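Example record used in the benchmark description.
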Amino acid sequence: MSNVTLIILCAGNSTRFGLQAKKQWLRIDHQPLWLYVTNRLKNLNSFQKIIIVSHKDEISYMKNFADDVDFVEGGDTRQQSMLNGLQNVTTDYVMVTDVARACIPEDVILDLIKNKTQADCIVPVLSVSDTVVFKDDTINRDEVKLIQTPQLSNTEVLKNALNTDIEFTDDSSAIKSIGGTIKYIKGSQKSKKLTFGDELTSLDCLKAPNNCCFNGTGFDIHPFEDNKQMYLGGVKIEGLDYGFKAHSDGDVLIHSIIDAILGAAGAGDIGEFFPDTDEKYKGVDSKLLLNSIVTFIYNVGYEIVNIDVTIIAQQPKINPYKIQIKNTIAKLLNIEKQFVNIKATTAEKLGFIGRKEGVAVQSIATLKYYDWTNR
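Model output (structure tokens):
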């Protein structure tokens, strides 16, 4: 086993990517890109440890996918994410790469490892074949290099180099700024970085996402509470002197949909995202909670196909509000209203629902992977 730790940076927001899903969550068959890159590099070299630096909102979900790597919460910048990852490195050398470089060839990885003792930072580069102009002046293209990742560094030197308020765009720039030594090796055109989304068509190592669909169920139930406004499916129910007893606004229908969506994605339940012990969710509008979950679901590489909801209530009467609820939920989910179905039934006067003491809702959600090949 080599004395090298691998850090994969995937805590970014993909603001320049231009696709619905974050780049780190594009599915390669069933694997999210970050896991595909991790497994690919793991098969090319025996790293002592692999560290995944993740966005804080996704780190818990990432842990569902792998047990043999360490997950670290990223920072607001690439450099802060690197520093967070480096705190967990105990090996003499560290290889840092961006998840955006998905198709790094084996010879680049092996060349980095082979040269690890030759300088403080080993860097793959590409030469420039076109004429280069800098500030309106043509410069010698033989003196221009395009820097790539992964870069392999002496761990302590890299830590020292990053211990500054100056922001660097890569490891070698930081190490060079403190007088560290750099060795350049031959990079590869196949190590193209995913930045704007259009690079996907030129990366032949990536398979299309699997076309499976995923189902999840959600169930929620709330008793009534006097002197509270009732909201159901994001719609204000008029003419009542009671609402739902709950930590939030108690919208039992939205809570059920949230659990169905999270279930289809294998992402836990509503309580894990919005614990009822947290005062910031006291009385919160459940539409805001659903908005947050929908953003999360799209970020991690899914699309919502359809929702089917069954409301079980002796009262209030649901039929006058079904169309309004359907329209509201469709808008919140960013899908057409034909893919939202709202059903209502009574409890035939049985149990606490039949006694007009509360309402229950059962939901089923269907998701599929975002198809980045059909963008």
